């Protein structure tokens, strides 16, 4: 239950949580009480958060963007985040690689304080929390990056086409998974997770600002010539198309 001034919330679900003070940048007075459909508490490495699920059409909160008459197709990759049909490339941010030394150092400190078969000390839990907070920072940096890139595309384009990638299939593909792991940009299978997150925000911003996003079936999208339609076999590492038919 929200207080009249929307500064406190009281939980009455017999969990003995009681009243909590709300701290944040969002003004809850902007929403009607009946718009709040669900409230839950989420624990993160840096604290607890109250998450409000609000029934709201995002198109009602912004003005439609001016049409630009621009259309582009994008292709996500392993050596770059995406390349578009105009020849532009978005580099992959090195958030994890930049934080790797700090993460390894925190992990070693955490491991040294761990005592097998015994109740863990306060120092261990503090070290584990510091390690978790650093991972949380990297995850937030990634999400902010994909949000920023997706919004920029929607702001300057009227239609964005992208491959309808089967992320679960990519994860199960042993050969592709190895390629992703060997990439200098993203470790293990985080690349496929980043693609999924990017698509989610791209579709959200497209809906919000009245732009068109189109998921294209991935069958032979990188094999067929966009000019004459002839199939030209390529490996995953080949990013430049050279057609033997039309040049």
Q: Give the strand tally.
A: 9
| H-E order | EEEEEEEHHEHHHE
Question: How do the strands of the widest beta sheet line up side by side?
Answer: 7-6-5-8-9
Percent strand:
15-25%
Largest sheet descriptor? 5 strands, mixed
General shape = flat
Low-confidence region ranges: 177-189
Number of domains: 2
Mean pLDDT across the residues is: 82
User: How helical, in percent, are the residues?
Assistant: 25-40%
* Tally of alpha and pi helices: 5
The N- and C-terminal alpha carbons lie at a distance of: 67 Å
- Structural category is alpha/beta
Radius of gyration: 23 Å
Describe this structure in words.
With 247 residues, this protein is an alpha/beta fold. It folds into two domains: 8-56, no CATH class; 59-216, no CATH class. The protein has helices spanning 95-113, 122-156, 167-172, 174-182, 190-209, and strands at 8-11, 18-21, 36-44, 47-54, 71-76, 82-84, 89-90, 159-163, 212-216. The strands form three sheets. It has a five-stranded mixed sheet with strand order 7-6-5-8-9, with helices on one face. Strands 1-2 form a two-stranded antiparallel sheet. Helix 1 (95-113) runs antiparallel to helix 2 and helix 2 crosses helix 5. The longest helix is centred in the middle third of the chain and has 35 residues, at 122-156. The radius of gyration is 23 Å and the shape is flat. The N and C termini lie far apart (67 Å). 11% of the residues are buried.
């Amino acid at each position: 239950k929200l207080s009249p001034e929307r500064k406190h919330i009281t939980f009455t679900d017999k969990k003995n949580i009681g009243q909590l003070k709300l701290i944040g940048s969002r003004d809850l007075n902007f929403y009607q009480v009946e718009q709040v459909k669900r409230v839950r508490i989420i624990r993160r490495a840096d604290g607890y958060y109250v998450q409000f699920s609000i029934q709201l059409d995002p198109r009602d909160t912004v003005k439609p963007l001016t049409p630009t008459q621009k259309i582009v197709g994008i292709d996500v990759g392993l050596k770059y985040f995406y390349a578009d049909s105009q020849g532009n490339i978005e580099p992959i941010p090195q958030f994890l690689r930049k934080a790797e030394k700090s993460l390894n150092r925190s992990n070693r400190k955490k491991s040294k304080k761990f005592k097998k078969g015994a109740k863990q000390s306060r120092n261990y839990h503090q070290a584990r929390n510091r390690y978790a907070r650093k991972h949380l920072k990297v995850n937030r940096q990634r999400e902010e990056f994909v949000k920023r890139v997706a919004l920029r595309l929607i702001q300057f384009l009227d239609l964005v086409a992208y491959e309808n990638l089967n992320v679960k299939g990519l994860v199960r593909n042993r050969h592709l998974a190895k390629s992703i792991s060997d990439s200098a940009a993203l470790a293990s299978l985080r690349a496929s997770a980043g693609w999924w997150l990017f698509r989610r925000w791209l579709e959200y911003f497209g809906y919000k600002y009245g732009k068109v996003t189109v998921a294209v079936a991935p069958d032979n999208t990188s094999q067929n010539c966009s000019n004459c339609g002839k199939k030209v076999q390529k490996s995953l590492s080949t990013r430049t198309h050279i057609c033997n038919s039309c040049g």
